[in-house]
Design brief:
about 325 residues; three-stranded antiparallel beta sheet; about 35% helix; about 25% strand; elongated
């Protein structure tokens, strides 16, 4: 497995909080306790600056500047320049420090509500990523003790290949693959393109992601309400929830009816498997998670499509999960 971390003079441009555990690749600098964003950037060697430089060409022996095109480039402390890619003039540079500071403000980490966990550089500086630990939600601490890890993965590129991205996920980012997987399996994602209004857009991320402490408290309360609703196997309560997510009135052909029957059979199987009822009992929380598992992993045979659908706010998958949540709560 390739980590794609930048390695200079035998040292990886990556830092991680020791309390969070060593990454699989065993590279980077382990740090103790809580670090400020600036300190984490410095330890990860991610505090470099990126600039837009003119694209020059020679014509008739005269050096000219190309109109409407620039080169994104890394400016090292020693003054050396590492060119990345040509971009159009609407491209707006946002430094790693700004991307991270905006994320910190979004989650309230500056107030101690969340902490820096990892930071790293990929592909010689073309990409930057970080993880902010939002803490663990424990559903029903005296009973099933279902633990939900919560991270905000931050990622951006300086070569035009990726927008600035904030993703709520349970995957800790420690390399290129975990960044990609974290984004694919994220519960919600906010992106902002590198244009003139990008910094204004980033300030709206909290509203889009819904990752405030208030959200965490409300989600935990909602989850424990669902957990308290008994839903025996074969119960009509299961039909109530499944009919809310996959309404029968939308079925107008035999093929659609067969597809719906196959989906409902699959969700019922998921409800009774060891990961759901086998671990947390027959209740509303388990039923809700069975619907979520279907959309996240079984909606199609294409895992990437499932992931993209699952993490996109407003997508049918996202809306269907909200319908399932409301339907389960209505059983109380």
């Amino acid at each position: 497995m390739s980590h794609e971390l930048e390695v200079k003079d035998g040292e990886a441009s990556f830092a991680y909080r020791r309390e969070g555990g060593a990454p699989w690749h065993r590279l980077g600098k382990a740090v103790e306790g809580h670090q400020t964003p600036d300190e984490m950037l410095r330890l990860a060697k991610a505090d470099y600056q990126v600039a837009l430089l003119p694209v020059l060409f020679e014509s008739d022996g005269v050096i000219r500047e190309m109109e409407g095109r620039y080169i994104t480039a890394r400016i090292n402390d020693d003054g050396t320049v590492v060119p990345f890619e040509t971009v159009k003039d609407r491209y707006h540079v946002v430094q790693n420090s700004t991307v991270l500071d905006k994320a910190i403000n979004v989650v309230g980490a500056s107030k101690g509500d969340a902490i820096m966990d990892t930071a790293g550089v990929l592909n010689d500086g073309k990409q930057f990523f970080a993880t902010i630990d939002l803490g663990t939600l424990i559903i029903d601490p005296m009973g099933v003790h279902d633990k939900l890890s919560r991270y905000l993965v931050v990622s951006t590129s300086h070569d035009g290949t990726q927008p600035i991205t904030y993703a709520c996920t349970d995957i800790r980012a420690v390399c290129a693959n975990t960044v990609r997987f974290g984004l694919q399996t994220a519960r919600s994602v906010f992106t902002a393109r590198h244009t003139a209004n990008v910094e204004t857009a980033l300030t709206e991320a909290n509203q889009v992601l819904g990752i405030s402490d208030d959200w965490a408290r409300e989600f935990k309360k909602c989850a424990e309400q669902m957990l308290a609703i008994p839903v025996p196997p074969g119960s009509n309560k299961i039909d109530t929830v499944l009919n809310a997510v996959w309404p029968i009135q939308n079925i107008d052909t035999d093929r659609k009816r067969e597809n719906r029957d196959e989906i409902l059979t699959k969700v019922r199987q998921l409800y009774g498997n060891p990961r759901n009822a086998g671990g947390y009992g027959y209740n509303g929380w388990t039923l809700y998670n069975s619907v979520v598992e279907y959309f996240d992993h079984h909606w199609s045979d294409d895992a990437d499509k499932n992931a993209i659908r699952s993490m996109t706010i407003g997508n049918k998958s996202y809306v269907s999960k909200l319908k399932a949540q409301d339907a389960v709560l209505s059983l109380a």
